[in-house]
Write the structure tokens for this entry.
Amino acid sequence: MRKGFLFKFAFAAVLFGVACGVNSVTKAQLEAVKPGDVLVYRYQKEGKSWFYADKITKIEGDKIYFNPSQKEGTAGNDERLKAFDTSREVSMTKADLLKYETEQGDERKVIIWINP
């Protein structure tokens, strides 16, 4: 009886750990980004999950340049996230990008996908 409970508890703990890690990327994936990749972010706003994307345009030294998405959406696969503002090119350092392996700040912002 006790053995069955421990097995079920261990299984539930592993399943929970896997589920928490599904919607995030690894440090290695973030280190391997290249021009053309699309970074999809999830963050919290008004009690809901929201999504937006950045399309990497170039990488020079420690700087990553990208075009932000024009809109945000409530689903990570929302077609509106595929329209990028090409009139603006924003940059961040590689160190700043690596922070988004885990949730950051009050908005719990995190990169959940990298699409080539």
About this structure: Residues 24-115 form a domain with the SH3 type barrels. fold (CATH 2.30.30). The chain is about 30% helix and 30% strand. The chain has one domain: 24-115.
